[in-house]
Amino acid sequence: MGEITIDEILERGIKLPEDRLSFPVEEFEKQKGIFKGKGGVYTFTSRVEGFLYVGVAKDLALRLSHHIKGSSTGNKGLHEKLKYSGVILTVYRESNQSLRELYENYLILTNNPKFNVSKKSVESDGYSSKI
Prior knowledge:
This protein has 131 residues and is of the alpha+beta class. 33% of the residues lie in helices and 21% in strands. A hairpin with a 3-residue loop joins strand 2 and strand 3 (50-57).
């Protein structure tokens, strides 16, 4: 099977899971229990700045807590943004790890979140990223 470029994937389109929930970050502690032990993809978006961060987790409750509470495994810049109102958390529940990673990459490549640094597509050397 040959390689497929990111542009080809984006042209074909990807349908995100319908099992999703969006709410203000301030409400996370109230919602946390429904995510315990569940895998999925999550986004933090700002009404002003758009997409801030896209992530993937096998235990959404644990990983989201790291971001929101500011643990050493969370993104420090993102944590600072989450202290302010106006940030929406959207969670797409997905049990399949391969699909989670596909959705995460798709959301990063199509939305260019401010705090996703390591997975952004870079073409500075003249070569496009391949999947």
